[in-house]
Amino acid sequence: MTPEIADFLAAEKPDTEFLPSTARMSRAELDALPSAQDLDPLGIGVIAGAANVIMQLSLPAVGYGVYESRVDSGNLFKHPLKRGRTTLSYLAVAGLGSAKDRKAYRKAIGKAHAQVRSTADSPVKYNAFDPKLQLWVAACLYRGTEDVHRIFGGVTEVTDEFYQAGAVLGTTLQVPREAWPADREAFEEYWNSTVETLEIDPVIRGYLLQIARAEFLGPVVAKLLGWYFEILAIGFLPDNFRRKMDVRLSPWQELFFAKHNAVLRAIITRAPKPVRSFPFNVLLADVRWRMRTGRPLV
Question: Does pTM surpass 0.85?
């Protein structure tokens, strides 16, 4: 970590527009990048959300950053609907939004991120503004996008244009453009080398299992539908993450997962684009309405 980035992370109120002096693109240039529309975001991907969260939080610094977060308004277990809206709205802004949308949402997220930093009692050091942590989260979001297209019949070939579009998942925040792996091969190298180092301790594993079972939706929902959400969470989870979490699906659960996705695939491939893009198109409209009316974005 350079002294410049260290000073940025140490600031009480970090500048959300920060980029290191070595960055090859200015903030204005990053915001002017084409949105990730080439990723053709499929709204059905929301059902793979828990699996993606597990991947993100498998990195200890990200896991404890969320687990120990003092931002109650963004706590999944205290405000599940709001947390779900703000997370999906970020994907909508990064994937479909304009430069103005990205700047406004980055500023709003920055206010919450300023409070997400480790303390002397934290098992690992973390800071929500750390570009390295943000890069990992963006990589998980991109990998999840690829998987959703593969499973539900979206993009049939991962072109370079498709891959490069994923960069905005990180550059919308504090990730410099050059930090995004140069090509798909470089991404695989980054991905595999990072995954090899991941260790999920009992505390974070327990927290992630609660998310997988949708316990944040309350005891009634968890009791009635927890089995279903858990099948989805584990089903969408790559094998190496299943091993790290020490979870697996039984034969009947694997069959249920496959049949479930086959039905959804048949529906999605025949649906018009507005339906395929839901809820991201609606959430982007909501973000813009909030901007016009002065309402909080997060």
Answer: yes
Which candidate, 84, 83, 105, places its Cα nearest to that of 94? 105
Strands (E), the chain: none
Domain boundaries, the chain: 42-293
Q: How do the pLDDT tens digits run along the chain, 298 residues long? A: 788 888 889 888 888 888 888 888 888 888 887 766 667 789 999 999 999 999 999 999 999 999 998 888 888 999 999 999 999 999 999 888 988 999 999 999 998 898 899 999 999 999 999 999 999 999 999 999 999 999 998 666 788 888 999 999 999 999 999 999 999 999 999 999 999 999 999 999 999 999 999 999 999 999 999 999 999 999 999 999 999 999 999 999 999 999 999 999 999 999 999 999 999 999 999 999 999 999 999 8
